[in-house]
Amino acid sequence: MDERTLDAIIARHDAPAGRLLGILGEIQNQEGYVPRETLELLSEKLGVRLSQLYGLATFYSYFTLRPVGDHVITVCMGTACHVKGAVAILEALEGLLGIKSDVTDDGKLSVTTIDRKFTVEIARCFGACSMAPVLRIDGNLYGYATPEDLPVILGEYGWTP
C-alpha cells in the first residue's frame, strides 16, 4: 500500500476509540490482507509500537498477514463440527486443491493455492452446530457437508479437477 493511500485511511479514523482496528480493517479490505510493510509504516506514522499493531492483527481472526485467494474457504472446527467430520472435510480439501494445511507464523491455519484462487482456513465455531459439519466460502454457508459434496461446491467457485 502506498503512503498516500495509508494517509487517507488514517485521516478517516481520527476518533481514539477503535481507531487502530478501523485503520487495520480498512487496510485489510483494500489489500486483502495486512502487509508487514504497511504495519511498519503505520507504526511510524502513528507513533504506535509495531508489536502493538502486530498483536491486534494476530489476535483478531478477521485479519491476516498473508495474501489470500480469490475465494476463502473456512472450515468450522468447533466441537460439533469436529465430531461430525470436519477433519475429513479439511483433508478432502487438501487433496482436491493440492495443498497441505499448516499453521502460519501468526498462529492461524491458513493456506492458499499456488494459483491464489482458494485459501483454506479454520474457525472455532460458526454458531451453526445444528448443521454440523459446516464450511463457509465467501460468506456462503454449507451445512451437513461431506467430503463427497466438495467437488460440486468448489465447482460453484470455478474449481475444476
Summarize the structure.
With 161 residues, this protein is an alpha+beta fold. Helix content is 42%, strand content 13%.
Structural class: alpha+beta
Q: How would you describe the shape?
A: elongated
Number of helices: 7
Order of helices and strands: HHHHEHHEEEEH
CATH architecture of the largest domain: 3-Layer(aba) Sandwich
Class of the largest domain in CATH?
Alpha Beta
Q: Can you tell me the CATH superfamily of the largest domain?
A: Glutaredoxin
Largest sheet: 5 strands, mixed
**Which strand-content bin applies to the residues?**
5-15%
The whole-angstrom Rg is 18 Å
Low-confidence stretches: none
User: How many structural domains are formed by the residues?
Assistant: 2
How confident overall, as mean pLDDT?
Answer: 91
Strand order of the largest sheet: 2-3-1-4-5
How many DSSP-defined strands? 5
Q: Could you name the key traits of this structure?
A:
161 residues, alpha+beta, Glutaredoxin, 2 domains, five-stranded mixed sheet, elongated
Question: What is the topology?
Answer:
Elements: H1 3-12, H2 19-31, H3 36-46, H4 50-59, E1 71-76, H5 79-83, H6 86-97, E2 110-112, E3 118-123, E4 135-137, E5 140-142, H7 150-155
Parallel strand pairs: 1-3
Antiparallel strand pairs: 1-4, 2-3, 4-5
